[in-house]
């Protein structure tokens, strides 16, 4: 771009030409800054800010390689950064990751996983897998955590990850102040996930891996909300725990789970877990019959509490939204579709159904109305919701690649104010811009 021609161009034309340049040289930048038009000077200011941010990011990454470079210069090449995710939650495994990066690897934006958004972690997860020499993940189950305590379970997970590396590390860099005592030379680094790129890479791998597992557990145990809090003791999680009791992935040695477990009989815990995990009215009814058969062997207060839990769960099944989703799933099944997912959560949102028929993969939003007061339910999928559905679909396809599938976004409107309910299935209800 010729700096001498700037006065001949409009601000919009200058902006467009700058967008096609690989780099803006200093002479052109000075010319932009000297232009009499505020809009042009703002373009120069934006470039200066971008350069400053880029330099700061480069400096941050360089600082995070200081330790690695010291070791690389000594001929210690294969450095395994190790970190964990999930020491504090009330449920789910503790997951550890070990990552060996090639020397001098810089990954823009890589940082302690706690400082990153879920979307950024997912993107970095893929980048790390593309460039790493070796990656491995190990975990300890809730049962192992209860048996050993969380620190020892974390060390077990770290050793498992290191053992599964395809390349043996020359040195292990561990976040924190304690070592897993693996078969390799180790170095503990307090705050390592923010001061070592290798450890930061491990923190991202561990966090994303565990979060994805908790999404799977959320589908198995929907009443606890694991997709939102990932097993941590949020207010919603504690309320669900109080209402439904612990499930099989809760850590029985952690308070307040331990207090609840000690207060009830084994039969009560089994029945309460069954109520919480029931996925249909039929399953819930079967559990209710089992409770009725065993009620003479249970304390009166436990029978009464189970009865309350049963009623709450039954009410939940008959709420408008879930009822409409069940009707929609039945409609798709009648049409020959296979229901792959119900209530699939990812990317900060949820899609009601994912169904497949032949080479068609349908992402389905279900809208249910018990009254016509607020208009037709099929009109309740605004552009923002469509974009969110698109992000969820991308997350699903990332986890379940379907290269030969034709993607389709459907809306199913359920009108419960008619008998039987009116089902309006709109195929290709919207398309997403690429």
Tell me what you see in this structure.
The chain is an alpha/beta fold and 434 residues long. It has four domains: 3-60, no CATH class; 67-216, Ribonuclease H-like superfamily/Ribonuclease H (Nucleotidyltransferase, domain 5), CATH 3.30.420.10; 264-318; 321-426, 3-Layer(aba) Sandwich (Trna Endonuclease, Chain: A, domain 1). It is built from 16 helices and ten strands. It has helices at residues 11-19, 26-34, 38-64, 66-73, 118-131, 142-148, 150-163, 197-220, 226-229, 235-244, 257-263, 266-277, 281-294, 300-317, 320-334, 383-399, and strands spanning 79-85, 94-100, 134-140, 171-175, 186-189, 338-346, 349-357, 360-369, 406-415, 422-426. Strands 3-2-1-4-5 form a five-stranded mixed sheet. It has a five-stranded mixed sheet with strand order 6-7-8-9-10. Strand 9 and strand 10 (422-426) form a beta hairpin. Helix 6 packs across helix 7 (150-163) and helix 13 (281-294) packs antiparallel against helix 14 (300-317).
Task: Give a short overview.
By secondary structure, the chain is α/β, with parallel strands linked by helices.
Task: Report the uncertain regions.
Answer: none
Largest sheet: 5 strands, mixed
Q: Kindly give the count of domains.
A: 4
Q: Estimate what percentage of residues fall within beta strands.
A: 15-25%
Instruction: Give the neighbour order of strands across the main sheet.
Output: 3-2-1-4-5
Provide the CATH top-level class of the largest domain: Alpha Beta
Per CATH, which architecture of the largest domain? Answer: 2-Layer Sandwich
User: Would you tell me the structural class of the helices and strands?
Assistant: alpha/beta
**How widely separated are the two ends?**
30 Å
Instruction: Please give the count of helices.
Output: 16
H/E element order? HHHHEEHEHHEEHHHHHHHHEEEHEE
Using DSSP, what is the number of strands? 10
Binned, the helix content reads: 40-55%
Form type: flat
The CATH homologous superfamily name of the largest domain equals: Ribonuclease H-like superfamily/Ribonuclease H
The Cα radius of gyration reads: 27 Å
What average pLDDT do the residues reach? Answer: 89
Return the CATH topology of the largest domain. Answer: Nucleotidyltransferase, domain 5
